[in-house]
Amino acid sequence: MRKSVLLVASFTTMALLLGGCQSSLTGDSYSRDEARRVQTVRMGTIESLRPVKIEGTKTPIGGGAGAIVGGVAGSAVGGGRGSIVAAVIGAVAGGLAGSAAEEGLTRTQGVEITVREDDGSMRAYVQQVQQNEIFRVGERVRIMTVDGTSRVSH
To answer: Where does it localize (predicted)?
Structure first.
């Protein structure tokens, strides 16, 4: 009974940790450090659009949470030395699975927006796709840049 409670608690902790790792890469999301900072605004016209995948985060949190869950689950197998070996194997397997799960859960769909700016330069910007925002080739857009981070908006 006690081990099943630990297992459920471990899985819940892992889910909460992985959910907290996600950050938004959309054009209308700003970090706390970017708020209230002066931005450079340029104008341009969209030349092309291309769907891309933005890979997920790869922090030690996913692997660590998976290792904890795997170790707890493995320790429930057998007794004595067998339990210790199973806990170690479970921790390694859980760490690998947790790391893969974190990357998969935080992976997102993005769009590469190639813009011919008014000064004649051509630049490409990648940002997360938003449900309510649709870009079209030929559309005029704003490019806002703050501290090296740029975003495209209508």
So the answer is: Cell outer membrane
